[in-house]
Design goal:
Length: about 250
């Protein structure tokens, strides 16, 4: 129903998708511009960085398509509209996500797929079944992790009735900075993105496995460790929901 409603104005819908597609390519051209001046960044070649960039963009676009709608939580709580969802016999998260799915984000998804198709042969990775599985896990687990971050953002609204804008550092910011392997930002940042916000577990460590810089099943299945972040995000949401009191609007 949400897709049908957005398709009522087909010209506007496809222009929005095309606009998202072009906007996303600015990051791709920026990457090309940098590597036209240098050969490597932290021992990663252009093709390897391009693969990293495509994976993060693909994971983010899927995660945002579903989780981005959770950004309306502050407005729902302030207006009292959340009370309506509480009396319905369906998942609250599903009720908020479904009417706020933004299918124009397909433009970013399409761009990420195109870049991934270019990056797979350019990366120099010798592909086999195990590495193909790792690639799928990187994209899938990354999408779930980004969804978890959007859920955490929504959960904060129960306590402060506002969205915490600094959370955008870990969602939209991760999309921007994730175009490069996280090791380029230094050891302290890499540790933070490993043990606090586990973005490195779906981006950096499995990338090392794909490039034969790390071996073993741990690195192959390391994206699965990023899924652990979903548990505290959902728990925080449930705690906020139990503490929720209508704003009276």
């Amino acid at each position: 129903m949400q897709l049908k409603s957005q398709m009522q104005y087909k010209t506007s819908f496809f222009l929005s998708v095309f606009g998202q597609f072009l906007t996303a390519f600015t990051m791709f051209f920026g990457l090309q511009f940098i590597f036209s001046r240098i050969d490597q960044i932290d021992d990663f070649t252009y093709g390897q960085v391009l693969l990293c960039f495509a994976i993060v963009m693909l994971a983010f676009s899927i995660g945002e398509m579903f989780g981005g709608g959770l950004g309306v939580f502050p407005r729902l709580i302030r207006s009292g509209s959340l009370d309506q969802t509480l009396i319905r016999p369906r998942s609250i998260i599903l009720q908020v996500i479904a009417p706020n799915l933004d299918f124009t984000r397909l433009g970013i998804l399409l761009q990420a797929v195109i870049v991934l198709i270019i990056a797979i042969p350019a990366s120099g990775v010798v592909w086999n079944g195990e590495k193909a599985l790792t690639l799928v896990l990187m994209i899938t687990c990354g999408s779930i992790l980004f969804f978890s971050l959007f859920l955490l953002y929504a959960s904060c609204s129960f306590f402060i009735l506002q969205g915490l804008q600094f959370m955008n550092i870990f969602t939209y910011g991760a999309r921007e900075f994730g175009r490069y392997p996280f090791s380029v930002y230094g050891k302290n940042v890499l540790k933070f993105l490993t043990f606090v916000i586990p973005l490195a577990w779906f981006q950096y460590y499995p990338l090392l496995y794909l490039l034969n810089r790390a071996t073993g099943a741990l690195w192959m299945f390391s994206p699965l460790l990023s899924l652990l972040f979903l548990a505290p995000s959902y728990l925080f949401f449930r705690i906020g929901l139990r503490r929720y009191q209508s704003s009276g609007s």
